[in-house]
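Record 1 of the preview.
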Amino acid sequence: MTELKETALAAEHEALGASFTDFGGWRMPLKYTSELEEHKAVRSAAGIFDLSHMGEVRVIGSDAATFLNTALVGNLAKIEPGKAKYSLIVNAEGGILDDLITYRIGEQEYLVIPNAANRLTVAEELTARAAGFEVEVRDESEGISLIAVQGPTSAAIISSLVRADEIELVESLSYYTHTTVTIGGQEILLARTGYTGEDGFELYLPHDKAGALWRALLEGGTDFGLTPCGLACRDSLRLEAGMPLYGNELTASRKPQEAGLPVVAFSKEEDFVGRAALEQAKAEGLGRTTGQRLVGLKAEGKRAARTGHQIQLPDGAPVGEVTSGAPSPALGHAIAMGYVDVAHTEPGTQLQVDVRGKPIPFEVVKPPFYVRSSR
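->
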């Protein structure tokens, strides 16, 4: 049996009484108290997450922008230093290998963030695709920790801990941008992104400094309702926000058009990997007039559809499959995401899901299910 990897914060989670789970080969905190309490804390105040299992791949060199424009489907050359972009890496057939956030650190430097389970795949693909370009691809995942603070009070928490002359940096930081701040004498890459549907920040720093930052955040966040949160509520939060999860909504057998992700920059000059396949899929109307498309589904009651459950027409004819589903703590009813034949994807369409032999009515809706009222 393969031994699970641990993050630099494993001892912190143990001290807080976390329940652990195997997530992509990592021993990660599933929850500390209850998934529901942690979910509500993020929606009403703030939650702190250890995301150090995520990958960090640095791309440096004079060809960095052009290279990433051939390696990824988005236009990474277009974003300015200090900005971030959501994109995908696909295979030659257009199948999604991972969804990524990429930060432009400088004119010739980017930081690519793959999902934990795909870290090695992405690093290997980028290295292979870098042949012929003046770039260096470095997988720095083993040395970088990532802590996220998400929720309405997250900005106040971060502002209370940075230097006085950096408070304005935090408060003025816009969505999908990043900067550098100092907490406890440690320089930190601070990004305002997130995966919960709330305002929030990601903090990147060396492994050996992660424990001190985690404790400082918990202490500084006491008056702001900061709660340690595990992966269980992270999943329910991202589902409410209608955000896809790799391995569920996104796989190598699905193309961006099916997932409803308008992130393919067909207008850029570079012949990126998968371009021909994705251009053909677009021309054939994949996800619009042919094939299937990812949709949101909501029920009246709380009985949840789960991954793999069959989606049906009211007469029982199969038209798709659930990729994620759960009761929504914020909304009080069950929600789900799944792939459905395009003919039945119009919002308001009445469908049903076979939940252990019982048909449960669901209505097609356009995600997100939950939208925060203000920043």
